[in-house]
């Protein structure tokens, strides 16, 4: 059976080779159960390192213009990159 | 005459920049013991009993009053109770006064207990940490509430102390919309001695950790609102006049410690561009706290407020 692993990396800017500032991993194989606060060291230094390790990029945050009057409002992490690996589980 | 030990300008700047102040082992041990006695024992795990029921029974038994939201903080707890004594500690009263001003208002409180694996196994549920979230709801104010987190006993790393993200308090997000973020560089986990207090800006991103020890972990939280001005409530006698802007970018060495140095220190998770906006938002927050509409640090506000139309 094929299962999906999803890695979400939050980077320091819009370039894939910029520094990882946040990360999440959701493991559809059931082999690991990752959760909030379980790791203080990033799995990769940059997004490019994830590509080199076999992760496939499936989505990146768009760059949006800043609405007038809201230029300085900050909310969510800005540079989100979703990666996947398709894994044969052998079930 | 106010003789409370108010926060210094440096402590206030640290709160403005990072959104928290931590006071380790600040509560006397006899008071920690009184609090835990008033909370009562927590029943052992019962096979088949769901965690919600275990939690509900614990809340019903604990000696915490069911207090209406919006009452004066001074009336929230009975005289002599552990929580009244805690709020009357000079350090606590001085910090509360510095942060939310005179006549603060009780918002709500909660007894947070994280249970060890045996409880989850008995209930058939999963033992996981709490997602990152910002309490309450989207809060567009410049004014802010505070939350005091009280840790009455020693918390080790495996007990799943509160996780929080320094410097996240000025971001306007919608509660658990940030739950997708599992880990963020610079996040902190509360590992502390009994009697430790964590004062949080109400906007701080946080979540409870997972308890993989063999003991329950107890934390009491109370949220407090301002009812009057939050401006210049800290010890402004420690606020040094700002004669001129500091040199920026081209520096021949480290600059001396200052409020500006505190406000201009970024967090490791800040993005390259939004990190600068965080600094600008801190300048604006400091203007609010000091009542100085012209304050700037490292020229971030001055530059973009120069409309060249004089």
Model description:
The complex is a heterodimer of chains A (91) and B (310). With 91 residues, chain A is mainly beta. Chain A has one helix at 47-52; strands at residues 2-11, 20-27, 56-60, 80-88. In chain A, a hairpin with an 8-residue loop joins strand 1 (2-11) and strand 2 (20-27). Chain B is α+β, with helices and mostly antiparallel strands and 310 residues long. In chain B, helix 2 (29-39) runs antiparallel to helix 4 (82-88). At the A-B interface, strand 1 and strand 2 of A face strand 5 and helix 8 of B. Strand 2 of chain A pairs antiparallel with strand 5 of chain B, so a sheet runs across the interface.
Uncertain residue segments of chain A: none
Percent helix of chain B, as a range, is 25-40%
Helix count of chain B? 9
| Percent of residues in β-strands of chain B | 5-15%
Strand order of the largest sheet of chain B: 1-7-3-9-2
Number of helices of chain A: 1
Overall radius of gyration of chain A: 15 Å
Helix/sheet category of chain B: alpha+beta
Outline of chain A? elongated
* Main pleated sheet of chain B: 5 strands, antiparallel
- Shape assignment of chain B: globular
Which key features would you list for this structure?
heterodimer, A: 91 residues, mainly beta, 4-stranded antiparallel β-sheet, elongated, B: 310 residues, alpha+beta, 5-stranded antiparallel β-sheet, 3-stranded antiparallel β-sheet, 9 helices, globular
Question: Which secondary structure elements does this structure contain, and how are they paired or packed?
Answer:
The complex is a heterodimer of chains A (91) and B (310).
Chain A (H helix, E strand, L loop, with lengths): L1 E10 L8 E8 L19 H6 L3 E5 L19 E9 L3
Antiparallel strand pairs in A: 1-2, 1-4, 3-4
Chain B lengths: L8 H10 L1 E4 L5 H11 L11 H11 L20 H7 L1 H11 L4 E10 L2 H7 L22 E6 L11 E2 L18 E2 L3 E2 L6 E6 L4 E2 L9 E9 L33 H5 L8 H19 L9 H6 L5
Antiparallel strand pairs in B: 1-7, 2-9, 3-7, 3-9, 4-6, 4-8
Helix pairs in contact in B: 2-4
